[in-house]
Amino acid sequence: MYVAVKGGETAILNSHDLVAEQRRGDPAVPEISLAQIREQLRLAVARVMTEGSVYDPDLAALALKQSAGDAVEAIFLLRAHRTTLPRLGYSVPLDTARMAVMRRISATFKDMPGGQILGPTYDYTQRLLDFALMAQAPVKQPPDLLRASPPEGAAVPSERPCGTATAPVAAQAPLPDDLPMPSVIDLLDQEGLVERHPVPEGDPAPHDLTREPLHFPADRATRLQNLARGDEGFLLAMGYSTQRGYSHTHPFVGEIRFGSVEVELVPEELGFALSIGDVDLTECQMVNQFAGSKTQPPQFTRGYGLAFGHSERKAMAMSLVDRALRAPELGEAVESPAQMQEFVLSHSDNLEASGFVQHLKLPHYVDFQSELDLVRQMRAQPASQAAEGDAP
């Protein structure tokens, strides 16, 4: 680290004040609240939680506010805070088949158990600016989707006054997404047409990238951790490259699901699982045709992606890259960048990439002067040689 000039500390403190002033903007405009960021910028919050490795919408909203909306800076803040938190224990593996589904689609099966659930998505919207959003819209009460309509002829209770209890209008009818929804990939598994991933003997604990450095070659569990924390834009570019013919795969979306999953912890003193809360997740499973090898028959292989919140683009890109990185274990030729784990895993982290690029802003006066002298010497040599050649 360089210390450029005396008095630099005062300049840095003044810079902090300017940052706070620029972040706040016009004082005449009401300051945005954490609740507004959390509820209305939920996709940005989901990205910060995923790449920051902390599931806490409030902290992610705070990081976004503090960073003035810079997602990478917000991820940096959240990861830095994460290092100060104690590790209280490990949850049992999440069972996404028990997800309370808000969105569930498949591009491989039109009709599947439980049906397609479009849920909240921009997929079917026109990409036109909605100028109505520039006006302050009145607050609308969300519809009670869990409450069924009363039977015809049934009496409907009047609105209850505050502080009094009353029976619901009608018994809550379970919706399809309240029921367990196993993965649609299981349909292929019933015919033995898709690879299986049984739990390894002894179920060894995975490598924890948040505490231990990355080593090569990395196993799949470690690669998935790295991809989950990786920059969405980088993974999107890598996933895009696999579709452009640079990894010899033709993916299909087996299933994308978004919803809430229960988190369970087994306290040592109790010996059984307790529910400690719910997390919103997006899960994506890609299927790819596999021609088979000497040890495996022709079948479909999988790529997997998982991210906090509603993060479909990240989960899809992650699953594409996960499948590409499995080329060596499947006996496929490693010929493209997306298939090279050292290239992908070493360059996917946006904090490391940002830090390495932005360190160029630090003073490099000594380095530059040495290179400047070298360039001058190289320019002087041809001139002197030319002068010697012209001499009689």
**Parts with pLDDT < 50 across at least 5 consecutive residues:** 1-5, 145-177
What's the number of extended β-strand segments? 4
Helicity, in percent? 25-40%
Biggest sheet details: 4 strands, antiparallel
Strands side by side in the biggest sheet: 1-2-3-4
* Mean model confidence by pLDDT: 85
Sum up the overall morphology in one term. Answer: globular
- Which class best fits the helix and strand makeup? alpha+beta
Order of SSEs, N→C? HHHHHEHHHEEEHHHH
Q: What is the end-to-end distance?
A: 53 Å
Strand proportion: 5-15%
Number of helices: 12
Gyration radius over CA: 28 Å
Summarize the SSE layout with pairings.
Layout: H1 8-24, H2 34-40, H3 42-52, H4 57-66, H5 71-82, E1 100-105, H6 186-190, H7 220-229, H8 232-246, E2 251-265, E3 274-290, E4 299-308, H9 312-325, H10 341-347, H11 350-358, H12 365-390
Antiparallel strand pairs: 1-2, 2-3, 3-4
Helix pairs in contact: 2-4, 3-4, 3-5, 4-5, 7-9, 8-9
Features:
alpha+beta; disordered N terminus; single chain; 392 residues; 12% strand; four-stranded antiparallel beta sheet
Please describe what this structure looks like.
- This protein has 392 residues and is of the alpha+beta class.
- Among the domains are: 8-82; 96-120 and 171-196 and 208-354, no CATH class.
- 36% of the residues lie in helices and 12% in strands.
- A four-stranded antiparallel sheet has the order 1-2-3-4.
- A hairpin with an 8-residue loop joins strand 2 (251-265) and strand 3.
- The longest helix is centred in the last third of the chain and has 26 residues, at 365-390.
- The radius of gyration is 28 Å and the shape is globular.
- The protein starts with 7 loop residues before the first helix and ends with a helix.
